[in-house]
């Protein structure tokens, strides 16, 4: 049955693959998952070393609907073509942030990226005058059933060591966020209910106070902003936009009593001073946060204090 008959199209996924060389000294038969790789476990420098191994590019051509997501494609490949392909996902709905990769070189989430938006039709990006279009100005002709939609290039999230295929090691980012104590530190005053009983969990805010940080609290720590940032690149010299967003979320929360300490923590050479205001971090945030603008506001808040 061809594509015209079953209402399907075809697409080719061109995947940058990587298999790490087995670690020396690991006991024969030992689990490859034995290393502590939890975001809350040991993630020191040795654990973050860029692993060496075999790199290659592999193409998979499969039947799709234009509205399928790139994650749908990878799951089909994993189940029916190549079970060795490694990628990470959890919720499948843009909520958990675990599946950020580079699609056609742009950091984004696999589960929200539709094939019709990312497939690059082979050859058709050259217009009648011979100019090659690479940006958003190119308007492809809507696909007909059975059409080959073209190619989607996939690679692990830039700026982080690759663990395997499309799986990047984001422990560095999670450690940087964790160091900034991303939880509410309210004072010890106990709130009381109307009848005078203690209600320790009630900290009132008005809508204006909530509005100051509500959008920032939507951050899912996906790392897309870090992968877009030319300064971050591994996070050795810059704490990174995701950590700054986490700090800003609590700095702007009227209930939090550690504003000065939080500002001190990021007012450093590898903190806000390292941000070069490139604003690439703003482009693809899946939660709609204008990351560059928020960091700019944060810098102003710290300079003015
Ligand atoms: S700010 Fe946006 S892009 Fe950056 S980690 Fe949070 S959700 Fe992801
Ligand atoms: S799988 Fe959870 S955000 Fe994509």
Automatic annotation (TrEMBL):
One of its GO terms (molecular function) is 3 iron, 4 sulfur cluster binding. Its cofactor is [4Fe-4S] cluster; [2Fe-2S] cluster; [3Fe-4S] cluster. InterPro entries: 2Fe-2S_ferredoxin-like_sf, 2Fe-2S_ferredoxin-type, 4Fe4S_Fe-S-bd, 4Fe4S_Fe_S_CS, Beta-grasp_dom_sf, Helical_ferredxn, SDH/FRD_Iron-Sulfur, Succ_DH/fum_Rdtase_Fe-S. Pathway: Carbohydrate metabolism; tricarboxylic acid cycle. Residues 209-233 form the 4Fe-4S ferredoxin-type domain. Pfam families: Fer2_3, Fer4_8. Keywords: 2Fe-2S, 3Fe-4S, 4Fe-4S, Iron, Iron-sulfur, Metal-binding, Oxidoreductase, Tricarboxylic acid cycle. The keyword NAD does not apply. SUPFAM superfamilies: 2Fe-2S ferredoxin-like (SSF54292), alpha-helical ferredoxin (SSF46548). It comes from the Bacteria. GO terms for biological process: respiratory electron transport chain; tricarboxylic acid cycle. The keyword Iron applies. Its EC number is 1.3.5.1. Residues 20-29 have a biased composition (Basic and acidic residues). Residues 1-54 are annotated as: Disordered. PANTHER family: SUCCINATE DEHYDROGENASE [UBIQUINONE] IRON-SULFUR SUBUNIT, MITOCHONDRIAL, SUCCINATE DEHYDROGENASE IRON-SULFUR PROTEIN. Belongs to the succinate dehydrogenase/fumarate reductase iron-sulfur protein family. This is succinate dehydrogenase.
């Amino acid at each position: 049955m061809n594509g015209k008959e079953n209402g399907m199209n075809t697409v080719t996924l061109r995947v940058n693959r990587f298999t790490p060389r087995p670690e020396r000294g690991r006991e024969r038969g030992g689990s490859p998952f034995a290393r502590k790789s939890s975001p809350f476990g040991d993630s020191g420098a040795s654990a973050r070393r860029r692993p060496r191994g075999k790199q290659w590019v592999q193409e998979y051509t499969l039947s799709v609907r234009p509205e399928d997501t790139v994650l749908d494609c990878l799951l089909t490949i994993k189940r029916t073509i190549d079970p060795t392909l490694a990628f990470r996902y959890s919720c499948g709905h843009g909520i958990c942030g675990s599946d950020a990769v580079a699609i056609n070189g742009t950091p984004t989430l696999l589960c929200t990226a539709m094939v019709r938006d990312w497939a690059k039709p082979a050859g058709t990006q050259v217009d009648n005058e011979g100019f090659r279009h690479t940006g958003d100005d190119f308007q492809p002709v809507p696909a007909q059933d059975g059409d080959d939609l073209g190619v989607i290039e996939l690679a692990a999230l830039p700026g982080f060591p690759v663990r395997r295929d499309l799986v990047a090691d984001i422990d560095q980012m999670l450690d940087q966020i964790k160091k900034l104590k991303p939880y509410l530190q309210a004072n010890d005053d106990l709130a009381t209910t109307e009848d005078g009983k203690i209600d320790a969990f009630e900290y009132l805010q008005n809508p204006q106070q909530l509005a100051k940080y509500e959008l920032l609290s939507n951050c899912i720590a996906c790392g897309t902003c870090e992968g877009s940032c030319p300064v971050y690149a591994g996070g050795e010299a810059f704490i990174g936009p995701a950590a700054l967003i986490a700090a800003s979320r609590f700095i702007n929360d009227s209930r939090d009593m550690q504003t000065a300490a939080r500002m001190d923590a990021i007012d450093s050479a590898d903190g806000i001073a390292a941000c070069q205001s490139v604003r690439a971090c703003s482009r693809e945030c899946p939660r709609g946060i204008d990351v560059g603008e928020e960091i700019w506001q944060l810098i102003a808040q710290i300079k003015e204090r």
